[in-house]
Every structure is written in structure tokens, then in C-alpha cells.
Amino acid sequence: MAIERVGIVGAGQMGNGIAHVFAVAGYDVLLTDVRQDALDRAVALIDRNLTRQVTRDLIDAGTKAAAMQRIVTTATLTDLGQTDLIIEAATERETIKQAIFEDLIPHLKPDTILTSNTSSISITRLASRTDRPERFMGFHFMNPVPIMQLVELIRGIATDESTFKTCEGVVARLGKTSTASEDFPAFIVNRILMPMINEAIYTLYEGVGSVQSIDTSLKLGANHPMGPLELADFIGLDTCLAIMNVLHDGLADTKYRPCPLLTKYVEAGWLGRKSQRGFYDYRGDVPVPTR
Ligand SMILES: NC(=O)c1ccc[n+]([C@@H]2O[C@H](COP(=O)([O-])OP(=O)(O)OC[C@H]3O[C@@H](n4cnc5c(N)ncnc54)[C@H](O)[C@@H]3O)[C@@H](O)[C@H]2O)c1
């Protein structure tokens, strides 16, 4: 099926990046959020990020102008009814995602494909509560979306082959590379990445090293471009905790228990870069470790 109009639900860190790459690839984008300020911030950020791409000669000024014109925002979820593909990128909480799909479904075309950018929630379970489990799958972008090459495509147990192929075609048109994952907790990338981040937080919690020494150790000792705590702040500590909880509950193995220090940071509202404080404090000119 031909995909031309794409609806994106959630205009946070991921939603704005997803809107950006779809608009550059020539898709018409309808972006929604429950918060008008999130929509305004997303448009301003997309404009800034596209300008940066023009400055670096990655795209030309005409492409930027055309992309900005293709993005329309709305605070009304049901305006997305006439789109061909929905990518849900709202807060990582199952009840929120489920309510979004329930509200959307009566307004959708019968052949609209529904997808979720969830980092960890069961695609099969989300799909089973919709009217179209065969046209439902995981469409998992990496952060920051305009830069990261991978999209992890996740088949729910009922996802049909034509839905999967259509989404594979969309990823190719975005100029990105897809991998296929089966629908088990946290899929491939986060199944491997999050326990490493959680272990880095345990290493801090147990006093084995400071924020600085843990991040420097992994950057210089394992050749990682970012330290694990820096990366956790970048992803969002609430999202990291949600993923660890999904791994812990879904695989019933104590090796996945979230570090109490991660829980503590989330309880404090120190969610990383998006709230200006996490394992680092971002309110000054340079990030300062908070422990
Ligand atoms: N942050 C990452 O690195 C990353 C990477 C890959 C996937 N994801 C996934 O992407 C999704 C979004 O994560 P994020 O980091 O962008 O979170 P975020 O907190 O930056 O943004 C979430 C947005 O969803 C909006 N929202 C909440 N309820 C809504 C509703 N009912 N309708 C519409 N919008 C609603 C919020 O207002 C907010 O703007 C999550 O499922 C997360 O697991 C995140």
C-alpha cells in the first residue's frame, strides 16, 4: 500500500525527530500532542535542526523550506484519522498508548497501518486491543532520529507480511536501515543496551566509581562514543526505568531489577537532559556530574 500521509502522536524528543525525517523524505506529516507547548517546541526544534543540516550541506535550503511546509500540527488526536500510517511516540506508559489507540480507531481509514515507537512494551498486547492486529507493528527509531541510522521493526504475533513490507519500504525511503526483531521484552537494542546502563548506575550506587570515572572508563576503555550515564540522561531516566521494569516483569529474572538509584532520580524529577538534570546538571555552560 502507498504511504503518503503520516500521523505522529507525541511531539517530545522522539516525535519531533520522527516528524523531521518524514518531512525531509517528502511525506505529509500531521503531528499531535496533548500539550500545545510541546507542539510549539517541536516545530521550533525541527526548524533549528533543519537549519543545522543546511549549514552542514546535508540538505539544501529548498528541501528545508519544503519539509517545514509539509509539517502540520494539531492538538486534536482525531485529526489524524485520514493518514495512511500512524506512529505513536507518546510517553512510555502502556495505559497512555492504549488510550491513544482506542480514541483514534473510530476515526481511522480501514487500511491505515498503526505502529508504536515504544522502546519496550509488547507490540502483540498493544495490537490485540485494536481492531487491526494484522496491520499493527513496532516502528522503533533511535535518538536523535535525524542522525541515527537504525530503525528496529518489530513484528507482533499477528502482524501480516504486507504490513511489514510496507514499513520496510518506508524505512528505505527515509534513507535509514531497518532490522527485524521479534516481539519479546525490549526487542534487540534495549534488551542489550539497558542492562548495561542499569549496571553502570549500580556501579555508581555501590560507590565503585564516580559519574565521571564510569563514563570515561566506557568511552576510553570500550570505545563507546558516549558514557552510559551520559547516554541514560540523553534517553531520559523515566524511559530507562520504564524499560528496565518491562524487562524485569516480562522476563521474570532478577538480573533485570532496576537500580534503586535510577528510581530515586526519577522520583526527584531528575530525568536527564529533558529536565536539565540527571546524572549531570545541564543548567550551566558545561554539564556537571550530580554525584
Ligand atoms: N528517548 C529515547 O531515547 C527513545 C528512543 C526510542 C524510542 N523511544 C520511545 O519513544 C516514545 C516517546 O519517548 P520520548 O523520549 O519522545 O518522550 P518525551 O517525554 O520526550 O515525549 C513524550 C510526549 O508525549 C506526549 N504525550 C503524552 N500523552 C499523550 C497523549 N495521550 N497524546 C499525545 N501525546 C501525548 C507528551 O506531552 C510528550 O510531549 C516512548 O515510547 C519511548 O519509549 C524513546
Automatic annotation (TrEMBL):
A single MF term (Gene Ontology): oxidoreductase activity, acting on the CH-OH group of donors, NAD or NADP as acceptor
Any one GO biological process: fatty acid metabolic process
Taxonomy, superkingdom: Bacteria
Keywords tagged on the record: NAD, Oxidoreductase
Site (Important for catalytic activity): 140
Domain called 3-hydroxyacyl-CoA dehydrogenase C-terminal: residue spans: 187-282
Record: residues binding NAD(+): 10-15, 33, 92, 97, 119, 143, 274
3-hydroxyacyl-CoA dehydrogenase NAD binding domain ranges (all copies): 6-180
UniProt entry tagged with the keyword RNA-binding: no
Protein family according to the UniProt entry: Belongs to the 3-hydroxyacyl-CoA dehydrogenase family.
Record protein name field: 3-hydroxybutyryl-CoA dehydrogenase
Species: Loktanella fryxellensis
